[in-house]
Amino acid sequence: MNLEQQEQALYKIEIPGLNKIYSGKVRELFELGDDRMLMVATDRISAFDYILPTPVPEKGIILTRMSLFWFDYLKDTMDNHILEGDFSRFPESLQKLTSLRDRSVIVRKVRRLPIECVVRGYLAGSGWKEYLQNGKVCGIKLPSGMKEADKIPEPIFTPATKEEKGKHDVNINFSRMENMIGREIAVMLKEKSILLYKKASAYAEKKGIIIADTKFEFGIYKDKVILIDEIFTPDSSRFWEKSRYFPGRSPVSLDKQYIRDYLLSTDWDRNSPPPAFPEEVVRMTINKYRQIYRILTE
Length: 298
Fold this sequence. Notes:
This protein has helices at 3-9, 59-73, 92-95, 125-134, 174-181, 183-206, 257-264, 279-297, and strands at residues 20-23, 27-33, 36-41, 46-47, 50-51, 82-84, 104-108, 111-112, 115-122, 136-137, 140-141, 151-157, 160-161, 209-221, 224-228, 237-241. The chain is of the alpha+beta class. Helix 2 (59-73) packs parallel to helix 8.
C-alpha cells in the first residue's frame, strides 16, 4: 500500500460544500475562495515518510495552537500565511462544524516552494549517523571529535527536496537548491531559516528547552516569499530539556522522536505498511506533545 492509498483509508476529513485542494500526511486544505484556504490539522502522525495506522488524539489541536503561537512570536522576522486563527471569527458555516475548532486556520493561498528548509543546531539523528561516516552533515564539514548531541559551532542549513506523496524527501546541497528555485530566493530562505531558528532557540532556552533542529516551508504569495505550514512543533522540530541534556548520548526528547524510536524497536522493515502501535505509545506521545506545548507557550 503506497502513501496515497493509506491516506484514502485513514481518518480523512471531508467538509460538505468545500472543495478539498490537498491532503498531506497530517494536514488537509480546502478552497475558501478569494485567495483563501482552510487548513485543518488531523490527528494523523507520520514517520519515515509513512502515515502510521494509529492516530494520536488531540495531536492536531496541539500542532495548530503551537504554530499559531510561533507565527505570532516571529511575525516581525518573517511574514506568514495566517489570516485567521480565532475560530469564533470564522465564517458561520464553518463555526457550525465544531470538530474544526482549535485544529483549523484560515490561510493565504500560496505557491509552495518545493524545498524543506532544515536548520540543525546540534548533532543528532541522521546528521549524527552521517557525521560518524565522513565527518560531514549533508556535505557540510564539521569539526572532528564531536560527540552525539554536541552543539554545532554555528547552526547549519541543510535543505531537502519536498517530494510528492509516496516518495522520500532527499537531502540536497545549496547549489542544487539554487538551481531549483533561483539564487536570490535560495539565499533569502537560508538566511531567514537560520534567523528564525536562532530567535526561537533563544526564547526556548529561557524556558529550559533546546531546539536541536527544525524545518520550515515557504511559499510565494503575490510575488512575496512567506512562511507557511507549521513551525517549531513537535512534528517539525527536535526538543530537548536542558536539565536532562548531556552530550555524548541521545537526549530524551519531547517530540515525534519517541514514535520513531518505538518503530525502530520493532521488526518493521520501513518498506511495507507500518504497524499499529499500542495504547501506551499513544498515551506517551500525546503527553510529550502536551508537555512541550505547556513549557513553551505558558
